[in-house]
Amino acid sequence: MSIYSDYIKSVIRTVPDWPQPGVNFRDITPVLQNSAAFRKLIDSFVHRYQEMEIDAIAAIDARGFIIGAPLAYELGCSFVPVRKKGKLPFKTISETYTLEYGESTVELHSDAFREGDRILVMDDLIATGGTMLAACKLIERTGGIVVETAAIIDLPELGGSAKIREEGHSVFAACSFTEAE
């Protein structure tokens, strides 16, 4: 967690029973609307990564882009989008992963990274970990090295961050929520 964790968490809105009954949706929109909160969010990631050797931020479609792009700018590294299937115009590689009810696929341009590039994988939220792990697999297939996986919010009770760690990747989140919060 970052020095701003409690503050960021206090600005995130919880929407009960959305998109279905029993689900507490963690809405980052208020953080984006509040310039001080957005600055603290970006700063929390900058402070963590400014002294690490990172060649690129691989941000996951679409909310990972919101944080990944300004972070790449601040760190002076490149920004690479990991997109939903069919959204990239050049030659791609893809990885399919399991969702609660079905499957999904993410893609990466085949020339996104060079062998040995050090990559930070960024998304807005870690729930079950499927999307993050699929992105890590794509990066590793290109010869890139996943330095860490990062998100605004971790929902540890859903097991995603533990699953990511079990696969050998470090996890950082600006804040976390339990279901009771």
Automatic annotation (TrEMBL):
Its EC number is 2.4.2.7. Transmembrane segments: none annotated. It is found in: Cytoplasm. One of its GO terms (molecular function) is adenine phosphoribosyltransferase activity. Pathway: Purine metabolism; AMP biosynthesis via salvage pathway; AMP from adenine: step 1/1. Homodimer. PANTHER family: ADENINE PHOSPHORIBOSYLTRANSFERASE. Belongs to the purine/pyrimidine phosphoribosyltransferase family. It catalyses: AMP + diphosphate = 5-phospho-alpha-D-ribose 1-diphosphate + adenine. This is Adenine phosphoribosyltransferase. Residues 33-156 form the Phosphoribosyltransferase domain. Keywords: Cytoplasm, Glycosyltransferase, Purine salvage, Transferase. NCBIfam families: apt (TIGR01090), PRK02304.1-3 (NF002634), PRK02304.1-5 (NF002636). CDD domains: PRTases_typeI.
